[in-house]
Design a protein that fits this description.
Blueprint lengths: L4 H10 L8 E3 L3 H10 L3 E3 L3 H11 L1 H4 L5 H20 L8 H29 L5 H4 L3 H11 L10 H8 L2 H12 L8 H35 L1 H7 L1 H11 L2 H6 L2 H5 L4 H10 L13 H5 L5 H21 L6 H19 L6 H92 L2 H36 L1
Parallel strand pairs: 1-2
């Protein structure tokens, strides 16, 4: 809507106000509409204008003096790079690319851990087949396979350690009893070493998966807090990943969000003229699972509406908060209760007013905290600079102190070297003068001193008389 300042300045300087009726050729109709609204110049788009602009762009280096084709191509490349850099550098904390990569890695890890766990089960099952029925969980099975090793070495002493792994005393006792009467084959130490190393790899992968899930939660709370509060971190991350970015998800209508992830079923239904799917990725949320079979379609449509609102709030709000997501979640809960019991839910307007009031308080608090952090950061930076300046001053003083004595020594040495020949020449004269002074009697010295003092007094008196005469002359002239 607002015209760019550089373009405004260019138009105002190049075209005077009298030529408002002159037609301007513009490539984009939006820019033309903005120029007309802001400055009142009529603009023309399409037809000949596009060809003229294309020709100007092609022969721009020939039309402008001092511009070569090479420098024009460099300028275009630099502009493209700066535009791409500006597109990438939005906000470091709100980058949704990390969410897309982490949810993809999480899904891949789930598949890999499942495959590797099945491999451990088959491999260790030859030696201890009864363990699979007692412990069906993959991660726990891998830990037990690593801990037990050779089942014949299992005894009552390792019962406590088994209980810690299984977290159940009955299961630990069952494992111990099964190891004594197992039908499995014997296994060599080398095979056991390989099984244990592979089991430790699977355990480390499952631990890394747990850490990655925590990272995904923290990242979702920064990037899309309302969406994660409404539908959960994993489902929200899958929606963002499938859409390509949070901005793309915010641009989608609710009908698209509802069937996002069920594209194959949708096109198959359109092709065969069958029933279209009611839900896609949002099926994994708890709301659709809790709804009755007849209400699943209605609740999925309602949930898709709320997901669209939440994603738009997260995408376009300056300070993202989870307040709106919590309120939208409450609305979905009320709608579920309405389908089951018939209790009427609150109106959307009332809920949104409450959410706006709460969100404004939360945003104000967040801004205060951010300002405090900025102030603390500035203070730390100031202290650091002061400390560096003090250290630099101390270093300079130390250097000066080190250089001063050296300079003094050099001066003394030079003075001594210069004074040595003079002393040798004047040595005899000074000795003769001292002998003459010693020869003078004391009375003569006193008389000479008195005469010098009298002469000084007379000079002072004469100076005073001259000053008085000058003052008298000045007063007479006045």
């Amino acid at each position: 809507g607002i015209l760019h300042e550089d373009l405004r300045l260019l138009l105002e300087t190049s075209m005077p106000a009298k030529k408002k009726k002159a037609l301007l050729g513009v490539a984009d109709p939006k820019i033309g509409a903005a120029i007309l609204e802001e400055l009142g110049y009529q603009c023309q788009t399409g037809g000949v204008v596009a060809e003229i602009l294309r020709g100007i762009r092609l022969h721009f280096h020939a039309l402008v003096k001092g511009l070569t084709a090479q420098s024009a191509s460099k300028a275009q490349l630099g502009l493209g790079h700066s535009y791409s850099r500006a597109k990438v550098k939005f906000n470091v904390n709100r980058v949704d690319n990390m969410i897309i990569q982490s949810i993809s890695l999480l899904d891949q890890l789930d598949k890999d851990i499942n495959t590797f766990s099945m491999r451990v089960r088959e491999w260790y099952g030859y030696h201890f087949p009864e363990l699979i029925k007692i412990v069906p969980e993959n991660a726990t099975y891998c830990r037990l396979a690593k801990f037990i090793g050779n089942r014949k070495e299992l005894s009552e002493e390792s019962l406590e350690a088994l209980e810690e792994i299984v977290m159940d005393s009955a299961k630990a006792q069952a494992i111990l009893e099964a190891s004594r009467s197992s039908m499995g084959m014997d296994i060599s130490p080398l095979d056991l070493i390989n099984i244990e190393s592979f089991s430790s790899r699977v355990i480390s992968l499952s631990e890394y998966r747990r850490g990655l899930q925590e990272y995904l939660r923290s990242k979702m709370s920064q990037v899309a807090p309302s969406l994660s509060a409404l539908i959960g971190e994993v489902v929200g991350a899958r929606l963002i990943s499938h859409a390509g970015s949070l901005t793309n998800l915010a641009k989608y209508p609710a009908s698209t969000v509802q069937i996002l992830g069920a594209e194959k079923a949708l096109f198959r239904a359109l092709k065969t003229r069958g029933n279209t799917p009611k839900y896609g990725l949002i099926f994994h949320s708890t709301f659709i699972g809790r709804a009755a079979a007849k209400n699943k379609g209605r609740i999925s449509r309602y949930l898709a509406n709320k997901c669209t609102i939440a994603s738009r709030i997260d995408c376009f709000s300056e300070v993202p908060t989870s307040v709106f997501g919590d309120k939208l979640r409450e609305q979905v809960e009320e709608r579920l209760a309405f389908y089951e019991t018939g209790e009427p839910p609150r109106k959307n307007l009332e809920v949104m007013k409450e959410a706006v009031a709460e969100a404004s308080e939360v945003v104000a608090e967040v801004k205060r905290k951010m300002e405090k952090k900025e102030k603390k950061k500035k203070k730390r930076e100031k202290r650091r600079l002061e400390a560096l300046a003090a250290v630099a001053a101390e270093v300079e003083d130390a250097e000066e102190n080190d250089t001063e004595p050296k300079r003094k020594k050099r001066k003394r040495q030079q003075e001594e070297a210069e004074s040595e020949p003079e002393l040798e020449q004047n040595g005899l004269e000074e000795e003769e003068e001292e002998e003459e002074e010693e020869a003078l009697p004391r009375k003569k010295r006193k008389v000479a001193a008195e005469e010098a003092a009298a002469e000084e007094e007379e000079e002072e008196k004469e100076k005073k008389k001259k000053k008085k005469k000058k003052k008298a002359k000045d007063s007479g002239e006045d």
